[in-house]
Design goal:
Blueprint lengths: L1 H43 L3 E6 L5 H7 L2 E3 L2 E3 L4 E8 L2 H10 L5 E2 L2 H4 L9 E4 L23 H11 L3 E7 L8 H12 L4 E8 L10 E8 L21 H5 L58 H7 L12 H10 L3 H15 L1
Parallel strand pairs: 1-4, 1-6, 4-5, 6-7
Antiparallel strand pairs: 2-3, 7-9, 8-9
Length: 351
């Protein structure tokens, strides 16, 4: 009698397990179907136009467009298309032209501000941060480079986007930069948008790098408010340097895929840093003059392809420049994967 009761209990338990498994399978299938239906609907809708300022090599633009894979994850296409883009650096323009859109206006924004389209759904840009950066001279928005954010203001007035996204360094939130932050927020508020800003840690979104950046988002009164994207990883499961680049350890130097590295000797604190394989990489910088961090196990500095991986650029994104200019492009870029997550929230504002 007791054995029969036990068998019945086990049978009930088996049924419960099967029910749970079936439910989980159903949930997975429903989520897959939901995504496919969502993508099908988006394909039928018109794409939202983007004006891109201070575009660099196109990290933020790639994230908004989507349609790339990295670290075994697919970042599917978004309903955005680049309508107009501008960048000062000619080498970055070449990379942008190859990988994003050949129709980029290469030159000083001051010379192109009058050539903007009359309307865009979204305006994005990482305005120059050298005067705000911790490693900068501390001139803030009064500096020659960082004051260029005023051209974002002008561009927003001219194109009337429904949403705009401005990216900058963590230093913007420092107490010593409070005046600069208040000035920027005041100027954006004057445009009549709902303004929000937040500090994002790239590693929380699947980028194998300790990189923190501020995103200021403005939404027009007639669209939904911006809700920051949810994080996809926690500190205990951040992607590591090893995760990102270990498969390149035995690959020979190859300029065709940007797998080249600096021969600069060890110097100073930043010039002597070595990656830790069990942690995300240190921030990839633009102005390191060849003193990029050392590989965690090899007797050399990171290659440009490895640095691009750490910034979450897919391997088919080729930089049209020699080492120094490639280093600058990679270090200045917004990680495409982080930008992709920001783009999901922007999309939600518009749909």
């Amino acid at each position: 009698m007791q054995k029969t009761a036990i068998r019945e209990q086990y049978a009930e338990l088996d049924n419960d397990v099967l029910t749970i498994a079936a439910n989980e399978t159903t949930i997975v299938k429903l989520k897959t179907m939901q995504r496919r239906v969502s993508q099908s609907i988006l394909k039928k809708k018109k794409k939202f136009s983007i004006v891109s300022l201070f575009s660099g090599c196109g990290g933020m633009d790639l994230g908004f467009i989507g349609g790339f894979s990295i670290f075994g994850n697919e970042y599917y296409k978004n309903p955005f298309e680049i309508k107009w883009a501008n960048e000062l650096n000619p080498y970055a323009c070449k990379s942008y032209s190859r990988n994003i859109d050949s129709n980029i206006h290469c030159g000083d924004i001051r010379d192109y501000i009058g050539k903007l389209p009359s309307q865009a759904d979204v305006l994005i840009g990482g305005f120059p941060c050298q005067d705000i950066s911790i490693n900068g001279k501390g001139l803030g928005v009064n500096g020659k480079r960082s004051s260029l954010y005023t051209y974002m203001i002008e561009a927003i007035k001219l194109t009337n986007p429904k949403v705009f996204v401005a990216e900058n360094v963590k230093g913007l939130l420092m107490k010593t930069r409070r005046e600069s932050l208040n000035k920027i927020l005041h100027d954006f508020n004057e445009l009549g948008y709902n303004i929000s800003y937040q500090l994002y840690h790239s590693a929380d979104y699947g980028v194998p790098q300790s990189r923190e950046r501020v995103f200021i988002v403005g939404t027009a009164k007639d669209v939904k408010s911006f809700v920051p994207p949810k994080t996809v990883r926690q500190k205990e499961n951040w992607l590591t340097s090893y995760d990102a680049i270990h498969d390149l350890e035995k690959v020979n130097e190859n300029e065709q895929i940007n797998h080249i590295w600096s021969l600069a000797k060890k110097s100073g604190e930043q010039g002597g840093r070595r990656l830790e394989p069990s942690k995300p990489a240190f921030t990839i910088r633009a102005e390191c003059h060849g003193n990029i961090q050392f590989h965690y196990s090899l007797p050399r500095r990171l290659s440009m392809r490895e640095a691009a991986r750490i910034q979450s650029f897919p391997d088919n994104f080729i930089f049209e420049a020699k080492l120094r200019e490639t280093e600058r492009q990679i270090g200045n870029a917004v990680p495409p994967v982080l930008a992709w997550h920001i783009a999901q929230s922007v999309k939600d504002c518009l749909l």
